[in-house]
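2024-03-11 09:14:02 INFO queue: dequeued item EF-hand domain-containing protein, len=206
2024-03-11 09:14:02 INFO validating residues
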Amino acid sequence: MSSYKPNEYSANATAQASSAGGAYAPTNATADAQLGTWFRAVDTDGSGQLTVHELQRALVNGDWSPFNIETVRMLVNMYDSDNSGTIGFEEFKGLWHYIEEWKGCFRTFDHDRSGSVDRQELHQALVAFGFNVSPAFVAKLIQKFDRYGTDVNSNGQGNITFDNFVQACVTVKTLTDSYRAIDTDHDGWIQISYDQFLDLVVRQRA
Ligand SMILES: [Ca+2]
Ligand SMILES: [Ca+2]
Ligand SMILES: [Ca+2]
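2024-03-11 09:14:37 INFO prediction written
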């Protein structure tokens, strides 16, 4: 899976977050040292490699809920360049930067600073990323990624936390890329065989 970066929106948002004194936004020469300290803290068994579970224990959402294990697996798959199944320090640097970019992006679209992204906020984010998705689809996406189930919170509106926001956006991006590769005449319609369909879905889950 290629590592999808949330385009120019994140660059601005990350810069804002850093200047606002974000705790984990190393921007100077000590960045590597800080990351090293953090890496050793996350590497609880001192193996020099981070497993999916070590990383999951270290990553929390704005509301302190633990990261969805699927999102952690996705991140590890993206940055495990030597295919060891774990994350070494050099790989960790890339992964860390990626999470920081997404954090900035998440803050940009969490307009009401609720720590979660609701239907309108997610719709705006996806449209800003260039995905022409319908409100109905966004509602489905929220339903799929809402860790607390849909429409159970007091305002009757489902929303998603940071980890699932990243996963939802990367999912849409990956599927859109697959679709566009088949939609060679760019008319928004594709005709695919059963085999092609299976291939598309299986690759999405890789
Ligand atoms: Ca370890
Ligand atoms: Ca590795
Ligand atoms: Ca929000």
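2024-03-11 09:14:37 INFO annotate: The first helix runs from residue 7 to 19.
2024-03-11 09:14:38 INFO item closed
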